[in-house]
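PROTEIN DESIGN WORKSHEET
SECTION A - STRUCTURE
LENGTH: 66
TOKENS:
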């Protein structure tokens, strides 16, 4: 049951980060010299993760590019 909540929480954190980047880009679109940020997300699979002992997140931010 805990794993289900961790996956949901991880997804919500990922969506929030994406929204933050988009909001920042929109807010600064008319600023002189502003370069948009981009996010790149990649799948995160632990080689030792099993259904009964998974404690990590399913995704992580690879980098935010300016």
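SECTION B - SEQUENCE
RESIDUE ASSIGNMENT:
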């Amino acid at each position: 049951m805990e794993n289900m909540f961790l996956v949901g929480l991880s997804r919500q954190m990922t969506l929030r980060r994406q929204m933050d980047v988009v909001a920042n880009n929109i807010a600064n679109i008319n600023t002189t010299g502003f370069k948009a940020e981009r996010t790149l997300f990649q799948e995160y699979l632990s080689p030792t993760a099993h259904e009964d002992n998974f404690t990590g997140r399913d995704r992580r931010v690879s980098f935010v590019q300016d």
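SECTION C - NOTES
Residues 2-65 form one domain.
The beta strands are 38-43, 59-65.
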